Amino acid sequence: MSVYSCLVVEDSPMMRQLLVFALARIRNMTVTEADDGVAGLKHLAATKFDIVITDINMPIMDGLKLIRRVRADRVHKDTPVIVITTEGSSEDRQRAMSLGANAYITKPIQAPQVIATVKELLKMNA
């Protein structure tokens, strides 16, 4: 039985809590939380994650810069990245996807959509 690890990078404690709660519904999923891109990079330097979920608008380092750094990282360059953000314009979506995001979800989030996207990207059976 596989154990999957997820890094959630989100500056809003309430949103992080919602994501952690949703991800807890996925069997064998461990979740690590970071409140900005720099904290996320520190976790990525110390641990191999199976998937990263990030917001775009965060202090210190935003999610787009984080995606760029993830894609440049030898260990995590192929790790799926999901962007969850309030930025709903097609330009923002294209920018995130062109940097290497695998999925783009706009807030407010729906737990089933987050769970389905994570399972799809990790190729987990339903």
Structure described in brief:
With 126 residues, this protein is α/β, with parallel strands linked by helices. The chain is built from 5 helices and 5 strands; from the N terminus they run βαβαβαβαβα.
Unreliable stretches (pLDDT < 50, length at least 5) are none
Question: What is the share of helical residues?
Answer: 40-55%
Q: Provide the β-strand percentage band.
A: 15-25%
- Helix and strand composition category: alpha/beta
Rg, Å, rounded: 13 Å
Q: Report the order of strands and helices.
A: EHEHEHEHEH
Q: Note the overall shape.
A: globular
According to DSSP, the number of beta strands is 5
Helix count from the secondary structure assignment:
5
The profile of the biggest β sheet is:
5 strands, parallel
Whole-number mean pLDDT: 94
**CA distance, first residue to last residue:** 14 Å
Strand order of the largest sheet: 2-1-3-4-5
